[in-house]
Write a structure and sequence with these properties.
It is a single chain. The protein is of the alpha+beta class. The chain is built from 16 helices and 16 strands. It has 3 domains: 115 residues, Nuclear Transport Factor 2, Chain: A; 195 residues, DD-peptidase/beta-lactamase superfamily (Beta-lactamase, 3-Layer(aba) Sandwich), CATH 3.40.710; 98 residues. The strands form 5 sheets. The protein has a 6-stranded antiparallel beta sheet with strand order 6-5-16-15-14-13, sandwiched between helices. A 4-stranded antiparallel beta sheet has the order 1-2-3-4. It has a two-stranded antiparallel sheet with strand order 7-8. Strand 7 and strand 8 form a beta hairpin. The longest helix has 17 residues. The relative contact order is 0.16.
Length: 481
């Protein structure tokens, strides 16, 4: 699971710029610091080139050799990089941004995701043959490297062909919907919702949303802000006076929780399955994880935080006097007309909820280990593509929050400009877009809204990231403006 979390963190940040708890997400730095003796100094550019060659070869041995030559093995492992490559494919070198004996930065583009990243290598001045820092970070794709816009009929036919090919290869099972101003342009579904029962995916199939559910949590908080019951600069302690960690309660704000700048971190780990069944309420999460100190001074950095959205859920409960689930149902799902969205526990039989499948040893295997007991304010729940279109249209029409508040929420609010208030954001003017992505073993969701153009692109799947997310972003980058 740790390796998948690495992948999602990077993927989420890059999506936000172009947004798996194992995505998306959204910023992840892959660092290796120096330790081992090496051959004579080759320079930062050589180190970056060596890593890129090993990564593109998809060779565990070559990635291990890179780590042994330049750095100690206490950062992201060669296996982490190899698993990340499954999502990105090979990386194409676009340009060299910087190249000195001690520092190098390469702009690369992932073949499968079409997302740009910076490969940065910094050598240790005291030991120039060793790496002081190595990182891979998402970055906006320069306009000259972005794909051309395509006429709608051609793009929809192209998208359908790509989706059909993925389904034929058994690489994707899910639903994709594209609409403009509420008019459906593409409504595709294929694959199996339940392989054991040979049950096909159809328009009623409900897919786990993973982190895309964070948009519901954000909207709920913004509604309370609009009602004057919560301020973005309120501390946790103002609404949760019994929060177990007083230092955090007195310093971390609602704004920081919404923008992934709180430093509160995550709760997914390799041992999540050992305690997940005991986490049945949002307060269960708080009691287990509140004691952890922030990873950095709140407000000073960006770092994707699932736990931060758990705390937002608890604030919704405390302020509204309702459970998170009852509040979302009454104030978001019903007003939007969403009748196929819910949060029933995994132990409850939901007639149209798809079975989650993760790829293991080349085969799709039913996934249960990483699923939470039920969806919560950080992610989870389930929905259909049609219901998520209703949610996006209710947002665009101002039925859920005011247009002014939505504009703030879908404008970059954190340090690296990839996240607003609960929404992944990107672009300016006619290319401005917002939404979210989610990913975990056996589930992948991606929602993109281009508000000035009226486009909504939705992809939901019951298989691993990022097959459906890649197609959603492929479409969004090519929609005619």
């Amino acid at each position: 699971m740790a390796a998948r979390l690495v992948c999602e963190g990077i993927a989420m940040f890059v999506r936000c710029l172009s947004a798996r708890p194992l995505l998306w997400a959204l910023l992840m730095l892959l660092c290796m610091s120096a330790a081992h003796a090496a051959p004579p100094a080759a320079g930062a550019r050589r180190a970056a080139d060596d890593w890129l060659a090993a990564f593109n070869a998809g060779s565990l041995e070559k990635l291990q050799a890179f780590a042994e030559r330049y750095a100690k093995k206490d950062g992201s492992t060669p296996q982490d990089y190899l698993e990340f490559r499954e999502s990105t494919g090979p990386l194409k070198l676009l340009e060299v941004r910087e190249s000195t004996p001690l520092q190098a930065k390469l702009l690369v583009l992932a073949q499968q995701t079409e997302r740009a990243m910076l490969v940065a290598a910094e050598m240790d001045p005291a030991h120039p043959e060793r790496l002081k820092l190595f990182q891979l970070e998402g970055t906006p794709t320069p306009e000259k490297y972005q794909p051309a816009r395509v006429a709608l009929p051609v793009l929809m036919a192209d998208a359908r062909a790509k989706l059909d090919a993925l389904a034929a290869e058994d690489a994707l099972s899910g639903s994709v919907l594209v609409a403009r101003n509420g008019r459906v342009l593409l409504d595709w579904h294929a694959g199996l919702a339940d392989r054991g029962a040979n049950k096909a995916v159809d328009a009623q199939t409900q897919f786990r949303l993973a982190s895309s559910n964070k948009m519901f949590t954000s909207v709920a908080i913004l509604q309370l802000v609009q009602a004057g019951k919560v301020s973005l600069d309120d501390t946790i302690g103002r609404h949760l006076p019994d929060y177990p960690n007083k230092a955090v309660a007195d310093t971390v704000t609602v704004r920081q929780l919404l923008t992934h700048t709180s430093g509160l971190g995550d709760f997914f780990g390799d041992d999540f399955d050992q305690y997940s069944a005991s986490l049945k309420t949002l307060d269960d999460y708080v009691q287990r994880f509140a004691k952890d100190a922030p990873q950095f001074t709140p407000g000073s950095q960006d770092a994707y935080s699932n736990y931060g959205f758990i705390v937002l859920g608890r604030i919704i409960e405390a302020v509204s006097g309702q459970s998170y689930y009852d509040y979302v149902d009454a104030h978001i799902l019903r007003p939007a007309g969403m009748t196929a969205t819910g949060f029933e526990p995994e132990t409850v039989d939901v007639a149209h909820r798809a079975v989650a499948y993760a790829r293991k040893d080349g085969q799709w295997v039913r996934e249960t280990k990483t699923l939470p007991w039920r969806g919560m304010s950080a992610g989870g729940g389930y929905s259909t593509a049609a219901d998520m279109l209703k949610f996006c249209e209710a947002l665009r029409s101002g039925r859920l929050v005011s247009p002014a508040l939505l504009q703030q929420a879908t404008t970059a609010q954190n340090h690296k400009s990839w996240y607003g208030y609960g929404f992944v954001v990107q672009g300016q003017g006619s290319q401005r877009q917002y939404g979210h992505e989610g990913g975990a073993p056996g589930s992948n969701s991606a929602i993109v809204v281009l508000p000035e153009q009226g486009y909504v692109v939705i992809g939901l799947a019951n298989v691993d990231p990022d097959a459906v997310g890649n197609v959603v972003n492929y479409i969004a980058r090519r929609l005619p403006l």
